[in-house]
């Protein structure tokens, strides 16, 4: 468990149900002045899809293009209906916008990555962010509309499986571990019990006491939660597929295991026989309601979102019937609504109650911290203030240089003298050096 690392300042994001859209539009100029405002163009679907058994909808994510340019504004969480009849497509409902992205390519670069999984009893949506070389595993609590970082994952092949009752969790991280709860805090993972040593996984399922895992060499194993600090050879090999070295989904439905990647969706029985292939579509992610598998196809990758990806479903085979051909249920499209650039408000989206930051010709309005007077987010040290003694740190937050003391809008050398060495300032306390 030593490979988990937590960012020093807790990464907390907020979402809101009150998404401000303007009037109907087809072109950016109808919404105000681009790039402060834009008309939503094509929708780029994000990675990850989950089934919500509470309302029988799918949960997907995405970011709109502007009508004339690329991805613009916030990423969103959507509800997608599953009751598709007579050739009609599913309806998409916007639920939340996700704040907190920092798209400037520095050490604080942070972008929404994917929907990881949904826990319907607790109403928790687990999602991941990508931040400057690592993944952030986070929990979106829909009761409080907040997103809380649980883990910062540095170079670890990390997978999580929660049981149906949402009382136990297994996860893979250079070993297979057990926690007797649903993950809510970093400490939940730190207090985990080792089940199997050193095993690396790219998919994991917890079903009762049974643990099903997939690996990067295309092998599938069965384990048990009763094992304690067991060696890898205690896992039972149940299936091998040399083409399954990558994984975009891993599900168990009744006595069948299904897995997906760019080669489609395949399956086999829990006894390791009866192999099936449900589709040859290249799969970005998949989920199930127990009767169908719903999946997003792989489109042209743009950052953490996919262009041209669509949502399809395929009915699972039963002892008396084979699976049907996949059915297209949703093609992403524009909602023809105006959207402000991140942080901006007003009829024409030109009001910023904070500091305007620019990257690639797109503005972002970040709030000002009322205590420090600094912007909540910075791209460069010049964004923080005119002070020579302040720095934009690796988390894109303003902070004083070592030895300097923060005052509102500035950093000062309160107990010494500023000494410059090769253009770099230091606050030297002469009394302490005598």
TrEMBL record:
<dbReference type="InterPro" id="IPR053369">
    <property type="entry name" value="SrfA-induced_signal"/>
</dbReference>
<protein>
    <recommendedName>
        <fullName>EGF-like domain-containing protein</fullName>
    </recommendedName>
</protein>
<keyword id="KW-0732">Signal</keyword>
<feature type="signal peptide">
    <location>
        <begin position="1"/>
        <end position="22"/>
    </location>
</feature>
């Amino acid at each position: 468990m030593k490979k988990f690392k937590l960012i020093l300042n807790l990464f907390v994001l907020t979402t809101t149900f009150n998404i401000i859209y303007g009037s109907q539009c087809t072109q950016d100029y109808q919404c105000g002045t681009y790039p402060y405002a834009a008309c939503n163009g094509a929708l780029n679907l994000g990675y990850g899809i989950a089934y919500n058994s509470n309302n029988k909808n799918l949960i997907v994510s995405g970011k709109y293009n502007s009508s004339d340019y690329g991805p613009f504004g916030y990423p969103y969480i959507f509800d997608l209906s599953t009751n598709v009849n007579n050739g009609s497509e599913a309806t998409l409902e916007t639920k939340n916008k996700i704040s907190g992205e920092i798209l400037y390519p520095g050490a604080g670069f942070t972008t929404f990555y994917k929907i990881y999984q949904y826990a319907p009893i607790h109403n928790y949506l687990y999602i991941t962010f990508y931040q400057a070389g690592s993944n952030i595993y986070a929990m979106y609590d829909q009761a409080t509309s907040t997103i809380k970082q649980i883990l910062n994952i540095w170079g670890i092949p990390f997978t999580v499986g929660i049981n149906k009752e949402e009382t136990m969790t297994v996860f893979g991280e250079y070993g297979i571990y057990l926690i007797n709860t649903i993950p809510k805090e970093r400490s939940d993972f730190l207090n985990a019990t080792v089940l199997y040593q050193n095993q690396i996984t790219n998919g994991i399922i917890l079903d009762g006491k049974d643990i099903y895992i997939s690996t990067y060499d295309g092998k599938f194993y069965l384990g048990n939660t009763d094992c304690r600090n067991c060696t890898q050879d205690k896992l039972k090999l149940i299936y091998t597929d040399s083409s399954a070295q990558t994984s975009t989904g891993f599900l168990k439905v009744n006595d069948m295991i299904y897995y997906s990647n760019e080669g489609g969706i395949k399956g086999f029985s829990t006894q390791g026989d009866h192999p099936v292939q449900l589709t040859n579509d290249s799969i970005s992610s998949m989920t199930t309601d127990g009767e169908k598998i719903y999946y997003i196809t792989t489109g042209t990758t743009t950052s953490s979102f996919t262009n041209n990806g669509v949502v399809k479903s395929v009915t699972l085979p039963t002892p008396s019937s084979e699976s049907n051909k996949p059915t297209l249920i949703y093609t992403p499209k524009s909602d023809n609504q105006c959207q402000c650039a991140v942080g901006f408000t007003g009829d024409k989206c030109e009001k910023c109650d904070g500091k305007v930051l620019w990257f690639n010709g797109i503005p972002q309005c970040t709030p000002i911290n009322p205590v420090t007077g600094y912007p909540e987010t910075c791209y460069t040290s010049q964004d923080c203030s005119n002070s020579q003694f302040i720095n934009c740190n690796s988390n894109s937050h303003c902070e004083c240089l070592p030895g300097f003391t923060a005052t509102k809008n500035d950093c000062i050398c309160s107990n010494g003298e500023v000494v410059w060495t090769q253009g770099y300032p230091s606050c030297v306390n002469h009394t302490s050096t005598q």
